[in-house]
Amino acid sequence: MGKPNKPIHQPFEGDNPRGRFVKITHDMMSSPAWQDLSLRQQGLYLHLKAKYSQRKIHGNIENDNRNDISLPKSEWFPELYSDYRTFSKDIRKLEENGFIQTIRYGKATHQCNIYGFSDLWKKWKPPK
Q1: Cα–Cα distance between 107 and 7 in angstroms, integer?
Q2: 107 pLDDT above the threshold of 90
Q3: pLDDT per residue over 38-63, tens digit each?
């Protein structure tokens, strides 16, 4: 008989005591790059981060999709954004501040863009 699964979440964090979650560290949230983002841009990052998944074997990451994150228009319009210009501006800001990078620009092939996560936010400096 196996060990019972202990809950990893508090009741106020969701209905599933062992459900998926988005991990944002305190040092990221207190970084100048994060503080420079608007709440809407921070929310967009959280939506992208919610698409991240990894497969661990014996505590080691075997594979993940850190450079294969897509957000098709059907997922952001109209619930998150009502127009492409605002969405595009916020994606650019996430790139400029070092949180994401564009892996594939899909406009020419009529496909959605593919994004990857970056740690360049650690080195980001505010523009002068």
Answers
A1: 43
A2: no
A3: 999 999 999 999 999 998 888 888 89
Distance between start and end Cα atoms, the chain: 62
Q: Give the C-alpha separation, 112 to 96, whole Å.
A: 20
What is the rounded distance in angstroms from the CA atom of residue 27 to the CA atom of residue 47?
Answer: 19
Which residues partner with 102 through β-bridges? 115
C-beta of residue 37 within 8 angstroms of C-beta of residue 47: no
Question: For residues 117 and 69, is the Cβ–Cβ distance under 8 A?
Answer: yes
The answer to whether residues 97 and 43 touch, using CB atoms and an 8 Å cutoff, is: no
Give the closest residue to 114 by CA, choosing from 48, 23, 41, 55: 48
Phi and psi, residue 15, nearest 5° = -80, -30
pTM for the structure as a whole: 0.89
Specify whether the CB–CB gap between 126 and 80 falls below 8 A: no
